[in-house]
Amino acid sequence: MTPVLRPxxxxxxxxxxxxxxxxxxxxxxxxxxxxxxxxxxxxxTPDKWTGELSDPxxxxxxxxxxxxxxxxxxxxxxxxxxxxxxxxxxxxxxxVRTAWQGSGLAARMMEHMLxxxxxxxxxxxxxxxxxxNHRARRFYERYGFERVGSYDFMVGNHRDVDDVMRxxx
Length: 169
Known about the structure:
The protein is about 35% helix and about 35% strand. With about 170 residues, it is α+β, with helices and mostly antiparallel strands. Strand 6 (about 145-155) and strand 7 (about 160-169) form a beta hairpin. The N and C termini lie far apart (about 30 Å).
């Protein structure tokens, strides 16, 4: 079944919290001490999602294969340490579940998010990516994202280095 992209609603808050935690753990969980991972995952709560989904500055799309969430992506106001050149927006999360990786879903989601970012009036889109996540970096580079800096990304007490990437819209 080909996943359908649809806007997330407040009714999706618990599902978003669950798949956010699951996809982060699937991808990066082995890199961290369990206590650091558990501390980081406290960011993925239904209450936090409910707040963001009711905030018009956030734009969240779900990729649904029937009742199963294949992934999601979230745009929001800038939070990364960068010097914007114009009217920025940030791709804050972009998760595709393992079973759907390589299916073309990520490309559909990225095209959707780029169009959504443009529709907000933004003229540049930022994101961060773990320096050792080479697959994600190559994916973003195909869409014209370029590294503009780096920063410390904290997972509990563990410090990772993430690159900040930017593309003009």
